[in-house]
User: Fold this.
Amino acid sequence: MKTVLVTGANGQLGQCIQKIQPQHAKINFHFKSSRDLDITNVKAVNDYFSNHDFDYCVNCAAYTNVELAESEEEKAYLVNAEAAKYLAEACAENNVTLIHISTDYVFDGTKKTPYVETDTTNPISVYGASKLKGEQNIQEIFNNYFIIRTSWLYAEFGKNFYKTILRKAEEKANLTITTEQKGTPTNANDLAELIVEIINTENKNYGIYHFSNEGEATWYDFTKEIIQNLNLAEAEKPSLKPIASYKTKAARPVYSVLDKTKVRNIIQTISWQESLQQLMKNHN
Ligand SMILES: NC(=O)C1=CN([C@@H]2O[C@H](COP(=O)(O)OP(=O)(O)OC[C@H]3O[C@@H](n4cnc5c(N)ncnc54)[C@H](OP(=O)(O)O)[C@@H]3O)[C@@H](O)[C@H]2O)C=CC1
Ligand SMILES: Cc1cn([C@H]2C[C@H](O)[C@@H](COP(=O)(O)OP(=O)(O)O[C@H]3O[C@@H](C)C(=O)[C@@H](O)[C@H]3O)O2)c(=O)[nH]c1=O
Assistant:
């Protein structure tokens, strides 16, 4: 039996892990929402670790509003960098393995081929910079971590681009979506499977890993695929127009496809289209 703390458990990824809990009876999960355990409260974190005997901490807690982070820099760094340090310190102190999630936005997007784990980071947004600082803080403290960088997460839970498009489709809004960035949409349910696989196999190959679904897409391509999979007659579908750029406060990498060679030693990866279709078959 392994005992696992999941922080930020009511977010998108946290809920995906909660969903598969019944299939993993050998894991004793402690799901903690932001209300139950505020990871920026160092005393609360240390007390919680002292009172339990965890094998793993899966940190799903984060400040994820890329736009708002530009004007709430302090808050973004507190959650994404400082609190990641508190968790790493508590993990080091209590001999707990930390599974921490990071992002493709740690890169600047100037590469033209998939990013490998050792590529130079150079975030171009506050969110990306705060997540990178979180990675660095963890690495300075100990070695027993998995930092999983992923991209463009979506699921049936929480707030994400996929759900925004479903809502707009329902409203029959006219969609104008950018072709400026290329990355890989990733079903957060697949990331949840990877995390549980690491725990179940007691994988000790610590380090940074890149994980996403396979293939590449622009946000426009992703939207087109979502609309194609909607259970609606053609006439009922929303109109969709590609645009060169969509005005935003935060800059986003124009290219952020991740190389999955390393993570394929742990889990098989599937194409983003296949994973999207599976999700939409079950939720439409
Ligand atoms: N979403 C995406 O597209 C991507 C996400 N990632 C990373 O994946 C991870 C999971 O993201 P995702 O599930 O989508 O994010 P969500 O925003 O859906 O969930 C984050 C959760 O963290 C909680 N949280 C925020 N502050 C604190 C705090 N101080 N203490 C405890 N909990 C807190 C939030 O709670 P509340 O709502 O109550 O504040 C929320 O439930 C994050 O590390 C993110 O950076 C990486 C790439 C892509
Ligand atoms: C709503 C909307 C957005 N866009 C553009 C804006 C932006 O360039 C792109 C993506 O929009 P979003 O703001 O929803 O996505 P964004 O918040 O940038 O998503 C990111 O979230 C963080 C947490 C990550 O870690 C990243 O991997 C990535 O998933 O789509 C349109 O072109 N049309 C629209 O109607």
Observations:
- The chain has a mean pLDDT of 97.
- The radius of gyration is 19 Å.
- DSSP finds nine helices and twelve strands in the chain.
